Backbone:
């Protein structure tokens, strides 16, 4: 039993989880301090709202969590292969447009229409993710640059196409037209909330991606490539195909996010979600990066981190009643994300903390760069930050294993 | 009676999961060359890192001239006159020799560098010890042997009197090794004290006065070289008898497996061709060795053979099939196994478990996957079998993270994977690099078994002992060309050295 507990405490996912929690905790504290400065007398009431309001409005928490869950999956999945997909916004917008197009331009029967719209959104995002993938795979163009540019290209193109289409654009409201009821997603019937079936689809897809990553040949290749590109090439993996496939899957996820957002049912009968083509890049795409970071790029982690971010966003929107500017909540969220980037340091801290508790060394002392660990002779599964130390250890214990070479000769696939 | 300049008393250094040094005592006399011998992971480098201030020991103390000293970082070590030449040189490639030597102790007047002062000191030092260098050459332009001299000059410039050498001969040619030995003797005569990490017994016998042997973090003992033998040292190091003579059956050459015709490969670091019009054959049942000093095109040749790099021209066939343009996967399917030069870069996914790494070349075969899903149980069972059969040691068996394993066991895992895979040709590139005697013996045996079972083996090695003992035929590479074909039975290390350094070439070869 003790061994088992030890194992849990030392497992990689445990320290990832605790470091995410610690990141959130520290972020909240800083957020609270910001609120204290902004409006000291209302700060604790507002802080309570941020923490608790979401529980009284779960429908909307899940509703707003859905699109960022999808973009979070898009970023996290690509990251498992070592690709930094900043293009989730563009893929999201492309998916949204395709879904909207099928919703407004095609008259399909109930029960089929919304499914067709979702599929169209998926394909739209997939194509928008595929293009940077092709550039990366064949021409070794950095995916960060292409996907950022494809955010702009996608956004301007979509705005232009919508504005130029009389059936899609209502010039008097300068927004997109209402979608027919048949194209809207089945609601879950929660009062005052647009929460709909897509939350289940999103969670199911996250689980599917988890299985894909951990149980399949494709996932094996993908992670191997992410960990060590050179070794994957040496093992004869088809890097070109895998890069394109990964970007297509990532794009499909973001595209679905866009589709879910626009196809969500309206709480007012006869209306729908609309899109305003005002040349702004979709924020949900960038929020996806935050979601993926906080969720440690794991599809299952993304489920939780997206719901959490949505939760504090809901709470934050309520603070305006108390006279807080909506920007405050953005500051708090940004702080949390900022701290989640520190999670590696926190991970090592947590790992050390639990190790010291479980195997207290006789004359343990704190030396800044060489933490003292337990002296068990069985190699524990090391956390990521310790691994860095273990590299140093390797240099010291045996003949250095040419780690430096690996770093020096960085060349792209 | 003894005049000890450095005493490391009862040093214990613990790392997570391992006691790197367990109550180790080492005493260095003034003016002696003291070798520190041990297998991989025996704790030699850790002990020296403790002395150099890179690590702090949990227990024990260090004394200099009888006084207890505290060494918290390399600066403290320097202040005490302790200098170290690391195995991987710590030089700034785009700086000149002079700039590297003065780095950190730049002589200056009001912030302006005083290079002339430094230059004079460097020139007088290089004169005195026979370390010829040009102070104005860029590091990236000079040979590895020269770079090592720069590292040595760095220590001398700082007036260090205790010099630590970490595996100094690993990167040198036989001639350069002889020169280094002379330089070291010169230092000792001058009264400097030398600590010399190695696992090459010949060098210890040749140059050291005393030798301290470590095994698995523990002190085995300190011996006078005059009163010992190579056999005794190796016994102390490994804890059992080691065969120095490789038992090798007569070569039985069978059909041609690999045939390489006029291949040229471009270089990534310079404009010239890294491999220039090279042709050779490897037959089933023989071990052909490509010998040469590092950086003469061996790496690129292997990359071309294994598909990691495209060729400029020429043709490669494996068992009669043209594989010049075949993908890496198809070469593997056609029967090529490859033990890569850099096990961390190519050979392993360090963040994968041992079992995942063991199937790295085979995960796609029906044995290990069904409809795109990995068969976890099949992978586990296969990994267990290989781990047993090839004695790969790790903390948690198949699920151990490869990063946490020792270098020797990582290499064993690769060897197991590549040899157990169905193959006709085994390309082994420096398969014993950085390994200890026991592991080397083991891997050599595996290579010979492979040969005896009718496989063709192409061995690329920088270790002359390995070249001479294992191979049936030696091809020497120099500046991208094969300059000689030698029979290890009718040649000497000295002759091989002449070919390797380009001083001699067989004109019938290489066109």
Residues:
């Amino acid at each position: 039993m003790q061994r088992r507990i030890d194992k849990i405490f030392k497992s990689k996912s445990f320290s990832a989880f605790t470091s995410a929690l610690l990141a959130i905790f520290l972020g909240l504290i800083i957020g609270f301090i910001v609120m204290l400065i902004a409006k000291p007398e209302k700060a604790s009431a507002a802080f309570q709202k941020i923490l608790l309001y979401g529980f009284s409005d779960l429908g909307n928490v899940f509703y707003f969590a859905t699109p960022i869950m999808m973009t979070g999956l898009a970023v996290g999945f690509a990251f498992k292969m070592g690709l930094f997909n900043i293009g989730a916004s563009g893929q999201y917008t492309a998916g949204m447009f395709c879904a909207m197009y099928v919703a407004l331009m095609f008259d399909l029967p109930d029960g089929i229409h919304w499914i067709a719209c979702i599929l169209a959104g998926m394909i739209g995002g997939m194509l928008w993710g595929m293009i940077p993938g092709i550039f990366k795979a064949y021409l070794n163009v950095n995916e960060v640059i292409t996907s950022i540019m494809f955010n702009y290209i996608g956004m301007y193109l979509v705005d232009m196409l919508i504005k130029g289409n009389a059936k899609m654009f209502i010039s008097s409201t300068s927004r997109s037209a209402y979608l027919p009821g048949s194209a809207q997603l089945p609601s879950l019937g929660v009062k005052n909330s647009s929460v709909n079936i897509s939350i289940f689809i999103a969670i199911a897809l996250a689980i599917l991606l988890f299985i894909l990553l951990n149980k399949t040949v494709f996932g094996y290749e993908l992670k191997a490539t992410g960990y060590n590109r050179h070794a994957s090439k040496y093992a004869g993996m088809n890097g070109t195909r895998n890069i394109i496939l990964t970007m297509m899957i990532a794009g499909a996820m973001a595209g679905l996010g866009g589709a879910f957002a626009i196809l969500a049912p309206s709480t007012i009968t006869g209306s729908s979600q609309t899109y305003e083509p005002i040349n702004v890049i979709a924020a949900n795409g960038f929020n996806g990066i935050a979601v993926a970071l906080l969720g440690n790029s794991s599809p299952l982690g993304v489920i939780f981190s997206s719901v959490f971010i949505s939760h504090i966003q809901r709470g934050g929107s309520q603070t305006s009643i108390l006279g807080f500017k909506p920007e405050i909540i953005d500051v708090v969220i940004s702080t949390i994300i900022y701290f989640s980037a520190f999670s590696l340091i926190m991970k090592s801290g947590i790992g050390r903390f639990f190790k010291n508790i479980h195997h207290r060394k006789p004359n343990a002392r704190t030396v800044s760069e060489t933490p003292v660990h337990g002296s068990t002779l069985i190699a524990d599964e090391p956390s990521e930050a310790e691994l860095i130390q273990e590299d140093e250890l390797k240099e010291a214990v045996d003949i250095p294993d040419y780690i430096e070479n690996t770093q020096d000769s960085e060349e792209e696939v | 009676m003894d005049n000890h300049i450095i005493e490391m008393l009862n040093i214990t250094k613990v790392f997570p999961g391992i006691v790197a040094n367990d109550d180790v005592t080492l005493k260095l006399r003034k003016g002696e060359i003291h070798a520190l011998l041990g297998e991989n992971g025996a704790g030699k480098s850790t002990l020296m890192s403790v002395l150099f201030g890179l690590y702090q020991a949990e227990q024990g103390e260090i004394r200099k001239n009888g006084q207890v000293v505290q060494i918290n970082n390399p600066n403290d070590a320097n202040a005490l006159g302790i200098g170290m030449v690391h195995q991987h040189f710590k030089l700034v490639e785009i700086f000149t020799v002079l700039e590297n030597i003065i780095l950190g102790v730049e002589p200056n007047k009001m912030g302006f560098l005083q290079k002339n002062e430094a230059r004079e000191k460097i020139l007088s030092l290089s004169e005195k010890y026979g370390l010829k260098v040009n102070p104005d050459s860029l590091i990236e332009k000079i040979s590895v042997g020269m770079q090592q001299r720069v590292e040595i000059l760095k220590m001398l410039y700082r007036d260090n009197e205790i010099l630590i050498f970490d595996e100094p001969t690993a990167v040198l040619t036989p001639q350069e090794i002889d020169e280094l030995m002379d330089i070291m003797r010169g230092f000792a005569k001058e009264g400097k004290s030398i600590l010399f990490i190695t696992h090459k017994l010949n060098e210890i016998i040749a140059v050291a006065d005393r030798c301290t042997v470590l095994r698995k973090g523990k002190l085995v003992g300190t011996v006078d070289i005059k009163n010992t033998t190579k056999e005794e040292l190796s016994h102390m190091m490994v804890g059992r008898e080691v065969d120095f003579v490789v038992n090798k059956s007569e070569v039985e050459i069978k059909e041609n497996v690999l045939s390489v015709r006029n291949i040229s490969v471009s270089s990534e670091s310079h404009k010239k061709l890294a491999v220039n019009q090279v042709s050779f054959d490897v037959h089933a049942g023989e071990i052909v060795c490509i010998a040469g000093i590092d950086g003469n095109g061996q790496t690129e040749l292997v990359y071309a053979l294994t598909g990691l790099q495209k060729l400029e021209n020429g043709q490669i066939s494996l068992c009669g099939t043209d594989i010049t343009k075949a993908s890496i996967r198809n070469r593997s399917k056609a029967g090529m196994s490859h033990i890569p030069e850099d096990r961390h870069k190519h050979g392993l996914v360090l963040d994968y478990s041992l079992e995942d790494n063991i199937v790295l070349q085979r995960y796609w075969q029906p044995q290990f996957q069904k409809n795109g899903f990995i068969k976890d149980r099949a992978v586990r069972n296969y990994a267990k079998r290989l781990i047993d059969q090839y004695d790969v040691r790790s903390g948690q068996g198949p699920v151990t993270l490869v990063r946490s394993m020792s270098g020797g066991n990582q290499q064993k895992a690769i060897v197991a994977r590549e040899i157990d895979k169905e193959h006709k040709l085994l390309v082994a590139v420096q398969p014993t690099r950085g390994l200890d005697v026991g592991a080397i013996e083991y891997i050599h045996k595996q290579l010979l078994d492979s040969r005896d079972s009718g496989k063709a083996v192409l061995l690329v090695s920088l270790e002359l002992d390995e070249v001479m003992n294992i191979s049936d035929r030696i091809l020497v590479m120099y500046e991208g060309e094969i300059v000689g074909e030698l029979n290890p039975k009718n040649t000497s290390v000295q002759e091989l050295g002449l070919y390797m350094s380009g001083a001699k070439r067989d004109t019938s070869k290489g066109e």
